[in-house]
Specification:
Elements (H helix, E strand, L loop, with lengths): L1 H19 L1 E2 L6 E5 L5 E4 L8 E3 L4 E2 L24 H17 L4 H11 L20 H6 L8 H18 L4 H10 L1 H7 L6 H17 L21
Helix pairs in contact: 2-5, 3-8, 5-6, 6-7, 6-8
Length: 234
């Protein structure tokens, strides 16, 4: 009986390995990666940052690091995002009220809204994210909002999510901002800002906008969050 079980487990392991290793053609240039679920993605073109060049005749393994090509500190300096002052003023009181309710710095919400939507309550991304804080319907429902296109409900859901992420990542703001963009799963996986160019530029933009919003009335910069080098050691 034990011998039969051992044979069965061995066969299962070999079957799984055959799915996780893809032998690529020896002619055309190929690119690929293995996602978090173990699914293999292969293309003749480098579709986005995740796809790595795979030499002819080589295999793509599920254990191969994904997108390690991006250098941990390869982040272009970002300038603050400056939305229309009229739009900012229109939602200022609402942002401050929601921030106070969830014990968040309103400048942080302002920075995220500025980068996400430019204070456009009707913004809709190609990934299905809605409104001021670009909240998806699934995230909105997760945090108690049924109408993500409603500005107040959108802000409420986004603020709850930020508060949740702050607890999850022990108030490490750089990781929180990265998780808001790339998802908490990606940040957990790398235990750092994921090595995605889009996410790293997003973090830089949000922090730059946050720093600008934190200036006092004399134009001097108040203590503002900065890029944590340790957070980019993914």
């Amino acid at each position: 009986m034990i011998f039969k079980r051992l044979i069965c487990h061995t066969l299962r392991a070999l079957t799984l390995a055959s799915f996780l290793l893809v032998t690529l053609p020896s002619q055309a240039a190929m690119y690929g990666y293995v996602d978090d679920t173990g699914r293999v993605h292969v293309s003749s073109q480098k579709i986005d940052e995740r796809y790595q060049y795979i030499p002819p005749g080589q295999t793509l393994s599920a254990t191969r690091p994904v997108n390690r090509i991006t250098h941990p500190y390869n982040i272009k300096p970002a300038r603050p995002v400056t939305p229309s002052p009229a739009r900012v003023e229109r939602y200022r009181d609402m942002v401050e009220e929601v921030a106070a309710r969830y014990k968040l710095n309103p400048d942080l919400l302002h920075a995220i809204i500025s980068v996400e939507s430019g204070y456009n309550p009707k913004a809709l991304s190609n990934r299905g994210a809605h409104g001021l804080m670009q909240v998806t319907r699934s995230t909105a429902r997760r945090f108690g909002s049924e109408q993500p296109m409603d500005p107040r409900q959108n802000l409420e859901a986004g603020a709850r999510y930020i508060s949740y992420l702050l607890k999850m990542f022990d108030n490490r703001l750089t990781l929180v901002i990265a998780a808001y963009n790339a998802g908490e799963g990606a940040v957990k996986r790398y235990n750092a800002v994921p090595p995605y160019a889009e996410t790293r530029q997003y973090v830089a933009k949000v922090l730059a906008t946050y720093a600008a919003a934190s200036m006092d009335d004399n134009g001097a910069a108040a203590p503002a969050p900065r890029l944590e080098k340790a957070a980019f050691n993914g």
